Every structure is written in structure tokens, then in C-alpha cells.
Automatic annotation (TrEMBL):
InterPro entries: DUF6042
Classification via Pfam families: DUF6042 (PF19508)
Protein name, as recorded: Uncharacterized protein
Organism: Paramaledivibacter caminithermalis (strain DSM 15212 / CIP 107654 / DViRD3)
Length: 222
């Protein structure tokens, strides 16, 4: 596929976490539709490019693929096996539209405004909470990385003050407490302290221990 113009992909596709539901090949097809729009490719030529595209899963982790298959199945969708399946999934998700121009040529375009997953898919409370968790992890990604790295460098056991953690990681005290609370609730770590995590001061001591089984399951990539 030649790169001529700039593909203007809606930022909401990332902000709304649609990538949680899009297999890699389906996401690549979404990008291709942006390319067709940019280059004004329509009609049979556009259809041929989409359905004949050699799209492969190159970056996905097997465990992630299996989880995505399970997720799509639970929502009533088929995991795509070919480009026609990819196209159907984008249509089912209301992420694209297929229309015709004045010359009766088929036109593939992005659906703007981009809908939110919760407005299109039948998401249960658990899945809605998962989306909120993902947003939280994205927002505090640096804090997660620094704190988890510190724990791993201490063999999964850390006795420290919050001030020491703050000095070592360069993470704000409020963010440290939020991330620790999240990891405790998730089960990835356990803590021992004299107060609730939210009430800890800089000088307060805390013992943190990684719970290996949960940690390995939840924290695939640090």
C-alpha cells in the first residue's frame, strides 16, 4: 500500500479503548479505510484493495489473542478469519460506513463521530469496570512502571517509607497511594501498614509483597 497522504484516524478509536475489541487485522483494515479516504479510492478498486489485503497478526501475544477471542464470543461476535470478517466487524461496531458517491461508486468511510463501545456493545458491569481499570492504568502508567520496577528490583518484597518510595521513583505521593490501593484490590500485591493506604504520610512505614500467582496473571507486560 503506497503512502501518499496523511491518514487522519479519529483519536477516539484509542481514547474510547476500541482496540480492546479490535483484532490486529481488523485494526489494520480500519487504517486501510483511512487510506482509501485520503487517496479518494472508491468503487471496485477500493473493495478489491480491502478484501485482497494481506493482513497478518504480527504483534499479538498468544494469550492476548485467546482473551480477545473469548471476549468477542461473549459479546456475540466472531473472531475474524479473513478480510470480509474484518470488514463485517467494523460495520457491526459502527466504526465505518459503506455508501455510494454521485457516480454510484462504493465508498468506505469512517463513522464520525466515533461511538463509544458501551453505546454499541452489550457490556456487563464487569466489562464496564474493566474499561475503567484500563483508563486508570493508562493515566497512571508511569507510576505503575516505576513502582512495579522498584518491587521487582527488591525481589518482590519491600519494607520502606512512602518518602523513600517517592524519592526513588519520582512519583507523587498521591499517585503512589492510588496505585498501591489499585494493586491491592487487584490482588497483585499485599501490604502491611498501621493505617489505610489513603491515610499514609511520607514517614509512615509500609511492607509490600508481590503475590506471584496473581501478579504473573495480571501483569503480562511491565
Amino acid at each position: 500500500m503506497e503512502k501518499k497522504g496523511t491518514i487522519h484516524m479519529p483519536k477516539e478509536i484509542h481514547e474510547y479503548l476500541w482496540l480492546r475489541y479490535l483484532p490486529e487485522t481488523t485494526y489494520k483494515m480500519y487504517i486501510m479505510i483511512g487510506y482509501l479516504q485520503t487517496e479518494k479510492i472508491r468503487g471496485d478498486e477500493a473493495t478489491k484493495k480491502l478484501l485482497g489485503a494481506n493482513l497478518k497478526e504480527e504483534n499479538a501475544i498468544p494469550k492476548v489473542i485467546e482473551e480477545k477471542k473469548r471476549l468477542l464470543k461473549s459479546l456475540g461476535f466472531k473472531y475474524p478469519e479473513n478480510r470480509q470478517d474484518d470488514l463485517k466487524l467494523l460495520l457491526d461496531f459502527n466504526l465505518i460506513k459503506i455508501g455510494k458517491d454521485k457516480e454510484d461508486n462504493v465508498v468506505y468511510v469512517y463513522n464520525i463521530p466515533v461511538p463509544k463501545p458501551q453505546d454499541i456493545l452489550k457490556l456487563n458491569e464487569e466489562e464496564l469496570q474493566t474499561l475503567e481499570n484500563i483508563k486508570f492504568e493508562i493515566k497512571y502508567q508511569n507510576a505503575f512502571n516505576m513502582i512495579l520496577t522498584l518491587l521487582i528490583n527488591n525481589n518482590g518484597n519491600l519494607m520502606s517509607t512512602l518518602e523513600h518510595i517517592q524519592t526513588t521513583t519520582k512519583v507523587k505521593l498521591t499517585d503512589i497511594k492510588l496505585v498501591l490501593e489499585y494493586l491491592v484490590k487487584e490482588g497483585s500485591i499485599s501490604v502491611r501498614t498501621q493505617k489505610d493506604i489513603s491515610k499514609l504520610k511520607k514517614a509512615d512505614k509500609i511492607f509490600i509483597k508481590i503475590n506471584e500467582d496473581v501478579f504473573e496473571e495480571k501483569r503480562l507486560v511491565l
